[in-house]
Amino acid sequence: MTDSPPPHPALALDDTVHQRVRLAILTVLSETQECTFSTLRDELKLTDGNLNRHLRVLEQADLLRVIKGYEGRRPTTWLRLTRQGRTALRAEITALEQLVARVRRAGADRLDGDPDAT
Questions:
Q1: Tell me: the pLDDT tens digits for 9-51?
Q2: Cα–Cα distance for residue pair 36/94, rounded to 1 Å
Q3: CA–CA dist 55, 21 (Å, integer)
Q4: In 1-118, which residue ranges form alpha helices assigned H by DSSP?
Q5: What are 77-109's pLDDT values in tens digits?
Q6: Which residues are paired to 79 by β-bridges?
Q7: Distance from C-alpha of 35 to C-alpha of 66, rounded to nearest angstrom
Q8: Which pTM does this prediction carry?
Q9: Which of 23, 31, 88, 113 has its CA 20 to 30 A from that of 43?
């Protein structure tokens, strides 16, 4: 039996998580127990509509939880990463680390555009 090479790490990237804004949302939420919609919006410099669209995708994938309530008399939306969301973020980071390791093993000089690099 021949051992087949492991799959390329890029194949492990999750399209739902890997999108730039969604990856940022998951990362910010991983840094805290919960975060308000407005804090996340301001941190990532997004419009309400843009953030809402990405939150819906992540919520439908069960990667985060949206909790609506009040802070005093003011309506507030809190966001929490789910266990599945933490697992997905960890898997994404692992895949990205593996990609970086492959590039480093291949030699950074190849990325610099050096035409004489082999």
A1: 999 999 999 999 999 999 999 999 999 999 999 999 999 999 9
A2: 27
A3: 10
A4: 15-18, 20-30, 37-44, 48-60, 83-106
A5: 999 999 999 999 999 999 999 999 988 888 865
A6: 35, 66
A7: 10
A8: 0.84
A9: 88
